[in-house]
């Protein structure tokens, strides 16, 4: 195993210069830094995190807490964050919380002394708890806005609104929204956007959920969605949408002839063969990159300055999974065979929240 002295000899510099180059690169001339890094790479030398922490007070590690690894939106953010961290000579420790406040708190407790900061993806802790953590270690939040913290989100509510507008243009008056996980900040924003549309005369949004954002839950919820009498279904994420599409096909309900379908992201079916599902395209990788860049800036700035967060724009891909509903005489709940029964109205004409 290569030692610090081996790198110094290979680069033709002192061991102290190698130490500065690897722990405080800004204090070393660019040509010397390049020579030291080339020597370290050639010899396979890696800095001991514990030793670096003693010298600099920093470990070079960040913790990224995520609800799960199955959601492709999260996976894309994680992969991009890891890539940028590696380019900046940092490492990410990934902790899966299952969307549980208790597991999230336990992960913070276990990792706080081992890392230089936290990236929290869709955290469920309260605002006070998150701010308390930020007072101890730099924190960046993804997919949720927290006052006083650097937060990065994408405008999926605006994208869903564009899809809903298109459904209205096509003549739909009853739309079902399959909501996301309990406690989701982003899901509340999407519900609020759809509720604004449902306030218009004659427009109804039937909200079902919350449910875990998975393929299985999408398939399981489909019968209840059809029972609302909706002519279109919007899903919280692409995994739910795929589950809905699978169950519709299994039951003989045709998309879009019998019912239109769209999703709030396109991550799970990007690149799949066949007709694309109408969806919001959200730049999930950019969230990971922005979060790492902001955390590096905060970890290296003793002044406590906080980089500004951003809401990233989205685009919408409208495809043939949206179509005009059947004539008014055929409207009503779709059965498993694709037929419609008598119409089942929602007298409130507003967004319905079953919780």
Automatic annotation (TrEMBL):
Keyword match Iron-sulfur: no
Region entry Disordered, spans: 321-355
Species annotation: Nocardiopsis sediminis
One Pfam family this sequence matches: Peripla_BP_3
Gene Ontology MF terms in the entry: DNA binding
Name under which the protein is recorded: LacI family DNA-binding transcriptional regulator
InterPro entries, per database record: HTH_LacI (IPR000843), LacI/GalR-like_sensor (IPR046335), Lambda_DNA-bd_dom_sf (IPR010982), Peripla_BP_I (IPR028082)
Residue ranges of domain HTH lacI-type in the record: 2-56
PANTHER family: HTH-TYPE TRANSCRIPTIONAL REGULATOR GALS, LACI-RELATED TRANSCRIPTIONAL REPRESSOR
Keyword Coiled coil among record annotations: no
UniProt-listed Gene3D superfamilies: 3.40.50.2300, lambda repressor-like DNA-binding domains
Keywords, ordered alphabetically: DNA-binding, Transcription, Transcription regulation
């Amino acid at each position: 195993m290569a030692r610090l002295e081996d790198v110094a000899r290979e680069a033709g510099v002192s061991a102290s210069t190698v130490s500065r180059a690897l722990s405080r690169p800004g204090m070393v001339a660019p040509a010397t830094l390049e020579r030291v890094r080339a020597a370290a790479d050639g010899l396979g030398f890696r800095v001991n995190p514990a030793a670096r922490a003693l010298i600099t007070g920093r470990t070079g590690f960040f913790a990224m807490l995520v609800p799960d690894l199955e959601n492709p939106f999260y996976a894309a953010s994680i992969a991009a964050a890891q890539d940028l961290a590696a380019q900046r000579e940092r490492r990410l420790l990934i902790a899966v919380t299952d969307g549980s406040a208790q597991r999230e708190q336990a992960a913070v407790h276990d990792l706080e002394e081992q890392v230089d900061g936290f990236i929290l993806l869709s955290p469920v802790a309260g605002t006070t708890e998150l701010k308390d953590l930020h007072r101890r270690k730099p924190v960046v939040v993804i997919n949720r806005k927290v006052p006083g913290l650097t937060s990065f989100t994408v405008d999926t509510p605006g994208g869903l609104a564009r899809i809903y507008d298109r459904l209205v243009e096509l003549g739909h008056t009853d739309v079902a929204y399959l909501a996301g996980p309990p406690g989701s900040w982003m899901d509340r924003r999407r519900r609020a956007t759809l509720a604004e549309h449902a306030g218009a005369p004659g427009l109804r949004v039937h909200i079902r959920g919350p449910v875990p954002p998975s393929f299985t839950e999408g398939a399981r919820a489909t019968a209840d969605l059809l029972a609302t009498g909706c002519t279109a279904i919007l899903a919280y994420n692409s995994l739910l949408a795929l589950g809905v599409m699978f169950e519709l096909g299994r039951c003989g309900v045709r998309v879009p002839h019998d019912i239109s379908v769209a999703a709030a992201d396109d991550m799970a079916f990007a690149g799949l063969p066949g007709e694309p599902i109408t969806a919001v395209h959200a730049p999930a990788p950019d969230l990971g990159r922005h979060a790492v860049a902001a955390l590096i800036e905060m970890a290296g700035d003793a002044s406590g300055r906080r980089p500004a967060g951003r809401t990233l724009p989205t685009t919408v891909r409208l495809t043939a999974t949206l179509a005009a509903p059947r004539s008014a005489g055929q409207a009503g709940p779709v059965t498993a065979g694709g037929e419609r029964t008598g119409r089942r109205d929602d007298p409130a004409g507003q967004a319905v929240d079953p919780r």
